[in-house]
Design goal:
By secondary structure, the protein is an alpha+beta fold. It has helices at residues 21-25, 29-32, 75-83, 108-126, and strands spanning 5-8, 17-20, 58-62, 68-73, 91-97, 102-105. It has a domain at 58-126.
């Protein structure tokens, strides 16, 4: 008696194989079950009470003279000071970290972004 063969693509990856048609029609009950138990949905954690956001404070130090150009300045004042800075490599910008209770140096990409924002806003005010 002839058997009818089919391409079985139920395997993972690219490993398709040719199998008898009967084996694809008769699926054992165990194959239908998931090999793992679904995780129970965990109860939502209570959201921590959010503290009111404190405005960021900045300190700007000139590298050549080591003079502090601004300390404890808010964003607007920081941008005004940075308008007079020739290049972002001429200064170091720190931000006050309330949790560490110390000044944290910004990464250079963050310092450059502040410097560019100051020069964008400065040129917009002139026009």
């Amino acid at each position: 008696m002839r058997k009818v063969w089919v391409l079985d693509t139920s395997t993972k990856g690219t490993g398709a194989s040719v199998v008898p048609l009967e084996s694809t029609l008769e699926k054992p009950e165990r194959a239908r079950e998931l090999p793992f138990k679904a995780a129970k949905a965990s109860p939502r954690k209570r959201e921590k009470e959010r503290k009111p956001r404190v405005p960021r404070r900045f300190r700007i130090v000139d590298l050549m003279s080591t003079e502090t150009l601004a300390e404890g300045a808010e964003m607007k004042a920081t941008l005004e000071v940075l308008e007079d800075v020739r290049s972002p490599v001429d200064v170091r910008i720190f931000v006050w970290d309330h949790e560490a209770d110390a000044w944290q140096l910004l990464r250079f990409s963050e310092q450059r972004a502040l410097w560019e924002a100051a020069h964008r806003s400065g040129s917009a005010l002139v026009e």
